[in-house]
Amino acid sequence: MAYYYDEPSRTFNEYLLVPGHTPADCIPAKVSLKTPLVRYRKGEEECPISLNVPMVSAIMAAVSDDNMAVALATEGGMSFIYGNQTIEQEAAMVARVKAYKAGFVESDSNLSPEMTLGQVVELKEKTGHSTMPVTSDGTGTGKLLGIVTERDYRLSRMSLDLPVSEFMTPLEKLVTATEGTSLKVANDIIWDHKLNSLPIVDDEGNLKYLVFRQDYDTHKENPLELLDDEKRYMVGAGINSRDYAERVPALVEAGADVLCIDSSEGFSDWQKMTIEWIREHYGTDVKVGAGNVVDRDGFRFLADAGADFVKIGIGGGSICITRETKGIGRGQATATIEVAKARDEYFEETGIYIPICSDGGIVYDHHISLALAMGADFVMLGRYFARFDESPSHKVMVNGTYMKEYWGEGSARARNWGRYDLGGKKSLSFEEGVDSYVPYAGPLKDNMAVTLLKIRSTMCNCGALTIPEFQDKAKLTVISSTSIVEGGAHDVLLKDKTPYVSNVTN
Prior knowledge:
NAD(+) binds at residues 262-264, 313-315. The protein is of the alpha/beta class. Helix content is 32%, strand content 17%. It has helices at 66-75, 87-101, 117-127, 183-192, 213-221, 244-254, 269-282, 296-305, 322-326, 332-350, 365-373, 383-386, 444-461, 467-473, 481-486, 498-501, and strands at residues 15-17, 35-36, 40-41, 50-51, 55-57, 78-81, 132-135, 144-148, 169-170, 177-178, 197-201, 207-212, 236-239, 258-261, 288-293, 309-312, 352-353, 356-359, 378-381, 395-398, 401-407, 435-439, 476-478. An eight-stranded parallel beta barrel has the order 5-6-13-14-15-16-18-19, surrounded by seven helices. A three-stranded antiparallel beta sheet has the order 7-8-9, with no helix packed on it.
């Protein structure tokens, strides 16, 4: 007969943290949120890849493109570029992220000398870039002739028909550097000559890249930036258990730092075969996460298969309807607690620590703190990041309120049936996700700052300055339905607080 669990399956909203002693030196500013991303021998070596904050963005077309990847890496987390697109498109997104932080930016706002001031204005409105190289053929790789910036023209005094050649800053007045110049030397040139940008040209005078002073300033302002050994932003990429033999090489070539098998259910031979193929062709040099699972057996299966991290969660996402469609899943809190215990057992047996990621079920910021306290090394978020400017979906007006479009990979809109299939032909065609809207919340940076401050503050309430210490000291209590009501504002008439809502909840 079927196996029955003794305890009910619980969500994060059914738990609270009981505060512990807070020492005088335990303040949010001193809290480190650094956490391991991939497997390693804990106590014997450093984790080869760690996150500076325990947050990654979901492998979803409505969430994680190259723009999101840059924004999140700037704050210390990582995006996993969605795999529900062609191999070429996904690899190109990864490559753009890796090129971005290298400091050597390929120009996408270029002019020819015959173009007019009116076309300059149109291009600026389209790309948002005010620095525009002028090349012989109007491309980003043509022979450099000059540069146009906002200091070169005044709309109130100049005709929109004026040719670029008559108001650009010509090449002979520009400071340039040759291809092969290091980023450090390029930044020194920028500072020595008080420049905002430095064109990099090859031996024939063709434009190769632009280096911006702003990139240097950005690094100073964002000390938690997630960078690789070459000071480039780090980025993950989603793969599947079908075309991995073609997709993985392309993503590795593009520079992906970590891969992750994107599937609604990971306790399968299909994931094992995918990992085995990667190990056969790349050894342990290519890091790959797997999932999703919700119990000890699923974790052990993927750990033994060689997964570098394991994702937890089935049916808990805000746009996921797997539970009501198929009747499978588990409460996210219960799943996280059991898999965390299995992770610790595996470490005691093998000496190998395999990080776990809680994916789904995060409704409020404090749920992230609860997931970490329960043993998650980091969390994967979809709806949270979908609300921001940097997500790839459209901002729309719905009933007088700005919203962002948000759809699941199992929705008819995404048609990512392979993510939910169980091998064989692509036969599944029923929905396991919905198409929806989420409240627009503005820029990622501002919202994440509030979320991370809440996490650090909660950790201090428990007397912890690191995530491992938090997990060791945390005391969790199950709460009743009336306790949930008591925990929010009640028995009062609330004043309007609409301007603050976007920074309070996910």
